[in-house]
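User: Can you recover a sequence for this backbone? Please restate the input before giving your answer.

Assistant: Of course. Working from this structure:
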């Protein structure tokens, strides 16, 4: 088994300090512990801004010095004067590769078509091109060669629709021979070849990771030999020693849930990594009479992975290592081993160990329980996910997040990978375009929009699949900016909900030109993976909704109620123009209420002066009163509620000139019914030009007879008792002469008067009567007309 052992070096964030790393690797290769087979780095490799976090605030000279060193080391790597004596692998490129390195970033590679021919290397001869192609073919799958003995772990991120967040598992051969790398003097060549199973997680990785999960859950998968991530897994502190735990959480202490990422912990548990490496935590330390932040080296106790359906036995042991940042030899000596940036291990790959050997390796260590199981998570009453709080119902965060993730995944489709045990029924969603039974109209519309030069926006759908709400504007802009995206628009929340609690399922991507949008949707082939979340992309509909060729003209959709459709309504809908400031919405709605109320007063007092004591106003007559309902003060619409349908109809006809409503007439605004401050003229409210008024459905609890039933809708009709007991005509009054009543109908009754004009005199009295004809409803008016017709017919026959 020893001949299959690989000697591996683990390194923390390099942050562009390439010369310090190269010198350290060279010295270790020549030491008694060497030579080593491979070096794996966790954290940013070329990033220069990361070093600013490790320096005290205001120490500009230190920051500039580190940036200058990183820039010089990058130039040395480009010109070949800086080399590595053994293969170095990293995941996070940081701010990007040094200029002139000749390697395009992954995003730039995706923007090129595989059939494109590069004309920039026109001076290169055929032998050089053939040699470069041969070297690319020798690079193992999942690795991107950056320089001699320098590789980036990319996995399947070369797929054209994966825009960020790498997560994959690959096999790395040992030794990893680079034909362009110079051999180290006195170095020993490895006699037996082996391979390491290496998993890696990009920065800000988020579930789900389809490729990673498929490989980790395969029945033949034993586990990762090494897993590299940029973040700690949530719950990791539960496996630390007492001293390391105190150093990481601080003197005041803290909870395990405050450190690390849930998504990383789930992927670590799934991959069952023997060694999980990540950057160390920043802790304050005294350096040269100043307090600075430095990454601390932390090693957890070995922990046992639980048995799974795809792994037999009790599972092997794993260990977590957090490694410090690369610093100069002088500073490394001052910091000591607690802040070391390199760590060496000898690994026998799991694929070369049988079950007994794995068990023996586990028993040789003091193994604790796995910190990534549900039992190890802290159970909180309420936990935070992406800025929105929800009640966990007594579940651990692992269980709660898993249920939320499965729910989101179940919405991705009605079967296959997106379906779970509770979603076995066929999906009701519309089939994809082009599939059997698909929506051909949608396909035609997409084809039309692709040829429409005026369309410069794309429709992005699938944000509901992100339960942690990590896909914010910044993340999406970083993903789509290389394609020319200039803006991202989210839908406005409805019902007055605050923006921070609103979780949209879609957004719109805006581009400068139609060609940029076309290039984006074509290269991505309608799908994009961002933070390991699958999103769908297609053309948005044109603003003017023009019919595409072959489609019949669009019919105008009926949005407003007519007066006939709102026969039982006593409510008018009012919308203010966009020219009115939002802060004035409330005051202007009150002005319109007074305008409507004054309009009815003017109609009732034709020929009566404003100062006449005979003038009837809303103060004296309840039937003229109008109330306003403004559901949301931030919205430019509201509702006017009248005492009867006739009152609302009168107002609509007078102010708009149409019984169905419309825009307010300009002449009604210039010389309105409102009295000016001088009490001698009409008030000018022409600033309300553009206000529209239409019929609305009756408010909740509004009965057909104009009464409020507060949500009750009883089958039989109940007439309220009249408080005026001295009224002769009220059926509820004890003074009503009921022996004179001839017939009682639904809205009116017929009675004989106490002192009739003649023997044929009769009265038609509304059951619920008032003092003004404006309160007569359409139903009451119809019934009175019907009774009159019958009485006339009877009179012609009897007289």
């Amino acid at each position: 088994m020893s001949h299959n052992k690989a000697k591996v070096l683990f390194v923390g964030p390099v942050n562009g300090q390439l010369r310090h790393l190269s010198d350290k690797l060279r010295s270790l290769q020549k030491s008694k512990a060497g030579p080593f087979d491979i070096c794996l780095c966790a954290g940013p490799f070329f990033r220069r801004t990361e070093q600013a976090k490790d320096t005290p605030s205001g120490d500009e000279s230190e920051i500039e010095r580190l940036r200058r060193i990183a820039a010089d080391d990058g130039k040395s790597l480009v010109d070949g004067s800086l080399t590595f004596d053994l293969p170095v692998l990293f995941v996070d490129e940081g701010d990007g590769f040094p200029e002139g390195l000749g390697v395009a970033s992954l995003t730039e590679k995706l923007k090129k078509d595989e059939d494109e021919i590069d004309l920039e290397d026109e001076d290169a001869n055929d032998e050089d091109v053939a040699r470069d192609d041969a070297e690319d073919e020798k690079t193992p799958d999942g690795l991107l060669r950056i320089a001699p003995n320098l590789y980036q772990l990319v996995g399947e991120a070369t797929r054209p629709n994966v825009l960020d967040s790498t997560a994959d598992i690959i096999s790395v051969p040992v030794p990893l021979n680079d034909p362009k790398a110079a051999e180290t003097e006195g170095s020993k060549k490895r006699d037996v070849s082996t391979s390491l199973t290496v998993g890696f997680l990009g920065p800000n990785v988020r579930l789900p990771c389809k490729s990673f999960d498929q490989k980790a859950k395969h029945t033949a998968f034993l586990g990762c030999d090494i897993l590299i991530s940029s973040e700690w897994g949530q719950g990791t502190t539960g496996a630390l020693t007492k001293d390391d735990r105190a150093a990481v959480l601080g003197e005041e202490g803290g909870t395990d849930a405050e450190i690390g990422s849930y998504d990383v912990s789930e992927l670590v548990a799934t991959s069952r990594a023997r060694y999980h490496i990540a950057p160390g935590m920043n802790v304050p330390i005294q350096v040269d009479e100043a307090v600075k932040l430095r990454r601390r080296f932390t090693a957890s106790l070995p922990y046992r992975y639980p048995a799974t359906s795809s792994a037999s036995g009790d599972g092997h042991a794993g260990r977590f290592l957090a490694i410090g940042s690369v610093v100069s030899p002088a500073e490394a000596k001052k910091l000591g081993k607690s802040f070391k940036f390199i760590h060496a291990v000898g690994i026998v790959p799991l694929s070369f160990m049988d079950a007994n050997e794995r068990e023996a390796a586990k028993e040789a260590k003091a193994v604790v329980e796995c910190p990534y199981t549900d039992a190890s998570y802290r159970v909180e009453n309420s936990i935070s996910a992406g800025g929105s709080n929800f009640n966990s119902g007594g579940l651990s965060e692992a269980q709660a997040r898993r249920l939320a993730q499965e729910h989101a995944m179940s919405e991705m489709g009605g079967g296959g990978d997106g379906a779970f045990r509770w979603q076995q029924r066929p999906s009701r969603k519309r089939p994809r375009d082009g599939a059997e039974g698909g929506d051909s109209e949608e396909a035609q519309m997409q084809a039309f929009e692709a040829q429409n030069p005026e369309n410069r926006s794309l429709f992005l759908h699938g944000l509901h699949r992100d339960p942690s709400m990590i896909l914010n504007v910044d993340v999406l802009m970083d993903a789509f900016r290389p394609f020319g995206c200039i803006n991202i628009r989210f839908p406005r929340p409805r019902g007055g909900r605050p923006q921070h609690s609103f979780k949209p399922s879609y957004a719109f991507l805006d581009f400068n030109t139609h060609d940029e949008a076309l290039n984006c949707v074509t290269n991505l082939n309608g799908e994009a993976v961002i933070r390991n979340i699958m999103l769908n992309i297609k053309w948005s509909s044109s603003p003017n909704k023009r019919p595409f060729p072959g489609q019949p003209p669009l019919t105008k959709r009926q949005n407003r109620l007519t007066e006939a459709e709102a026969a039982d309504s006593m409510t008018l809908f009012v919308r203010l123009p966009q020219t009115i400031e939002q802060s004035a919405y409330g005051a202007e709605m009150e002005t319109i209420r007074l305008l409507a109320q004054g309009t009815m007063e003017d109609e009732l007092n034709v020929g009566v002066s404003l100062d006449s004591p005979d003038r009837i106003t809303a103060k004296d007559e309840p039937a003229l009163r109008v109330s306003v309902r403004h559901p949301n003060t931030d919205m430019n619409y509201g509702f006017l509620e009248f005492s009867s349908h006739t009152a609302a109809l009168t107002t609509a006809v007078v102010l708009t000139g149409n019984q169905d409503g419309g825009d307010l007439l300009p002449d009604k605004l210039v010389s309105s019914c409102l009295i000016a401050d001088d009490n001698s003229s009409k008030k000018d409210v022409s600033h309300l030009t553009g206000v529209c008024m239409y019929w609305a459905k009756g408010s909740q609890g509004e009965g057909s007879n104009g009464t409020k039933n507060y949500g009750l809708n009883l089958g039989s009709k109940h007439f309220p008792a009249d408080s005026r007991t001295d009224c002769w005509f009220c059926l509820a009054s004890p003074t009503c002469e009921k022996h004179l009543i001839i017939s009682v109908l639904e809205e009116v009754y017929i009675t004989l008067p106490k002192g009739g004009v003649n023997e044929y005199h009769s009265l038609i009295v509304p059951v619920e009567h008032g003092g003004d004809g404006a309160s007569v409803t359409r139903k009451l008016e119809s019934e009175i007309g019907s009774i009159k017709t019958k009485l006339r017919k009877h009179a012609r026959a009897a007289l």
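That completes the design. Residues 49-58, 378-396, 412-438, 703-723 have pLDDT under 50 and may be disordered.
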